[in-house]
Amino acid sequence: MDLVQRVKNICLTPNTEWPVIEAEPTTAGALVSGYLVPLAGIGAIAGFIGGSIIGYTVPFIGGTYRTPFVVGLGGAVFMVVMAVVGAFVLSYIINALAPTFGGTQNSDLALKVAVYSYTPALVAAVLKILPSLGTLAGLIGGLYALYLLYLGLPRLMKCPPDKAVPYTAVVVICAIVLGFVIAAIGTAVVGAGMMGSGALGGMTGRREP
């Protein structure tokens, strides 16, 4: 199934799409390269355009702030890399927790749950091209991703329906902690990039005596 059709189906008809995903023979490499990276890349490009070209309006102060080009580009690459790393870490957590909630361990299916349930958040990231809408869209996409996770866990990981809520809750808590870690790393990377960009600008701005 092509990417656009899968995005449409998992977002609009998840109850009928999860069984299709479960039965679909897909390798981890194909799932990441053919689905996760393209979607994450589109959002990263949108974020780069919004941050480095369109710019952010600073509340109560006014004016427009733009992330330096090189820093914004590095941040976009970082977002894609972290999307892949985050999906694998989350799939490991999903798989490890499965027996605790009466489910069956399967690393391939766990990766499918991690990647496909995150689809709404990846799609919402496209709106980062308009920074004023990016945060709200990300929140809505994230909440819907939780619903997809709730539907996908009992179907793919075979946990009893009555265990789906606590299973989802624990996975979400782990995902939030993971998100904070990624955000902290990203802040450090961007901060270092800003400092490096400023230092480079200062060096190129100096005149030799």
Can you characterise this structure?
This protein is mainly alpha-helical and 209 residues long. Helix 3 packs antiparallel against helix 4, helix 3 packs parallel to helix 5 and helix 7 runs antiparallel to helix 8. The longest helix is centred in the last third of the chain and has 42 residues. The C terminus is likely disordered.
Q: Name the structural class.
A: mainly alpha
Largest sheet descriptor: 2 strands, antiparallel
Strand sequence of the main sheet, in spatial order?
1-2
Oligomerization category of the chains in this entry: single chain
Distance between the termini: 64 Å
The gross shape turns out to be elongated
Strand content: under 5%
Layout of helices and strands, plus pairs?
Elements lengths: L2 H10 L1 H10 L4 H27 L1 E2 L6 E2 L3 H29 L9 H11 L1 H6 L6 H26 L7 H42 L4
Antiparallel strand pairs: 1-2
Helix pairs in contact: 1-2, 2-7, 3-4, 3-5, 4-5, 4-8, 5-7, 7-8
Précis, in short:
By secondary structure, the chain is mostly helical. Helices cover 77% and strands 2% of the residues.
Provide key terms for this protein:
209 residues, mainly alpha, two-stranded antiparallel sheet, disordered C terminus
